[in-house]
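Archive entry. Fields below.
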Amino acid sequence: MADSNYLPVPFAAVDAEESQVRTAYEHPWAVRFCHWLNAVSLFVMAGSGLQIFRAFPSFGPKIPQHNLLNVPKSLALGGWLGGALQWHMTFAWIYVATGIFYLAYQIFSGSYRQSLFVPRDLAGVWPMVRYYFFFGRKPAQTGVYNPLQKMAYTSAILLGLLSILTGIVLYNPVQFSILAMLMGGFHWARVWHFCVLCALLLFVLGHLIMVILHGWNNFTSMLTGWKRNPEYLP
Amino acid sequence: MPDSANSAKSKTMNRRELLKLSPMLFVGAFAIPKTREPLLRGGVAFTDWASAKWFRRNHLAPTFADSELTPLNQFYVNTYDLDDPGVDLEKWRLTVSGDVKWPGEYTLAQIQSLPKQAQNTRHICVEGWDVIGRFGGTRISDFLEQVGANPEAKFLYVECADDYYESLDMASALHPQSLLCYEMYDQPLTREHGAPLRLRVPTKIGYKQAKYLTSLRVTDVVPKLGYWEDQGYPAYYGL
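PREDICTED_STRUCTURE:
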């Protein structure tokens, strides 16, 4: 396990056929399904959430009301507060169910080893940052994901969890009063919920940029599971 | 194996893997108005159901010190059509009907003769803002006992002088902090806050705190859910 050349083989099973084209099965069905379903629900949750925010675009008092930012109608989903609540409350369950199914799959299949950021990945983060942002030398790719990638994916999962917890407190601050207290009360939970949205949107932005930079072959692997000639294969 | 054969095999495999994602297409139902409406209604109903499920009868809403109160002049007033429906406070009566032993008209003095509870609790509007207010009144549970209401009934249904109306599930109505509120900040309710009587249910969202009450019915079947609920807002919306 501690071997630096460790390849998560069950999840990057090399096509046994001898040929020039080498393919690796990177993303099992459950992961791909959760990825795309989550992409849809995240989009709906963000859009309807912004419409809900438009009803009171502030984190201060109601009197006097100081609007923090006016979210353009074009970014909002649901048309009006009531409509946005319907979308938000419906997709929240899809979002939660996808999250539970994904985590259960990752844990029971062991596939989490491919994407979970662990302490031994720490050393590899800075070289990747240097490569991406400061023209550093490209570190050797030893697994499906590099350490920086693992860090991003693991953070996204934690952000997802936080978005659900802060959302539950916003919806039922009385029944979940202990959780609300931990977040600093209803008022602060609303602030955290919004911060988590911003962080998730930043993740999505970075993710999309990387997907575009890595091209079609990388993109289709999230559709079919297979990646042709991945660089970590010998 | 020749490369072309390999590529054909890989194409079939890719197509098969792609098809495995087809269950995703169910989200397309949200793009079609005919299927979207019932799906969203179902989503809200399920959320309400969950909220009712984790409601605990004796779990109290957090209360606050007097120093944490939002000053009364910063307590936002949300009305849906008029600031003051012009209730004649002298002639005002609460009409009680439905599944009760003693239906009829009750005066404010009769309601106030029951023990008074004062509470500093958070009022949360569905729009997202919140205030901490001081509310005083008669416990709904005490009043329902007084009029001999059937506690097995499912709902309270109230109507208001400004034509607003609301329904409240019995479990929430019987909660120890649910009030027929006639005082705010130790003063009789002002006109804009719903004089002479309003609901104060700190386990519910703002729009369920109906003002200017004129009638109260104990019933298993509500004619309508509530003014905002009938326009698509969640009917239960517990906090």
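CURATOR_NOTE: The helical segments of chain A are 29-55, 81-109, 122-133, 147-171, 177-182, 186-224.
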